[in-house]
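Observation: inputs received (chain + fe (ii) ion).
Thought: call the complex predictor directly.
Action: predict_structure
Action Input:
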Amino acid sequence: MEDPEVIPMFSSPLFNVQVEEDTDELNESNSYYIGSSQQGNVNKTDYSFRILDRHPRIKNILLSYWKRVNSEYLFNECEHIITTSWITKTEKSEYSQVHWHKNSYFSAVYYHGEYDDKCGDIMFQSPLEKFNDFYTPSSRQNNIFNSDVWGIKPKKNKLIFFPSYVSHQISGHDSDLTRYSLAFNICPVGKYGLGDSFIDTNWYGEKPNIKENLIEEKIESNTGWSFDMLSGNKNTNNMYPGDHQ
Ligand SMILES: [Fe+2]
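Observation:
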């Protein structure tokens, strides 16, 4: 039998790149951090969730790496922005809870500090695991087809991107080095989608006054057909937005 073609259907791709530019100025922001033990229950006063706004040059560098990944592998045609960004600090014997990122399309972690072999890995859990009722661990070899968890070792200037729905955590950190990492979220902006899944994120800035905002727009789709958006015409629609008459 010939070797079968193996297709990793519906993958959750993790992109791993090495940043070449100097980003050491991020170390100045290491005092604005979230402790690993505080993730999900942040109570510090000296943290920031927009840390990259203090480093616009680095923000542009990191976003450029994402744009390259997107253009070469995902082919999203819309623009993306970095939304929230924060630094996580992990001391010896600390770890973080399993979590994932909401209100985000892709997430990223950038390792801007110093690391050794005892530093905690970032561990990812398969989002498909809950669909499989059989527990059949491999005694021979773990690979991309049979693994439910996947670990990535931190390394200076390593930048990883992963789908925000993938659960992850920092595993046990046994190093005497303080483990710093910069995390950030990425969202699409502008106009994207089709039909009733079309969105223009500029709508988010509109005032919630329905009568003032009633507009008729023709949205041309890639398939050539068009439709009315938010016509508000009571004579032609049984249902229309927000009128109490
Ligand atoms: Fe996270």
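Thought: report the result.
Final Answer: The radius of gyration is 22 Å. Residues 15-189 form a domain with the Jelly Rolls fold (CATH 2.60.120.620).
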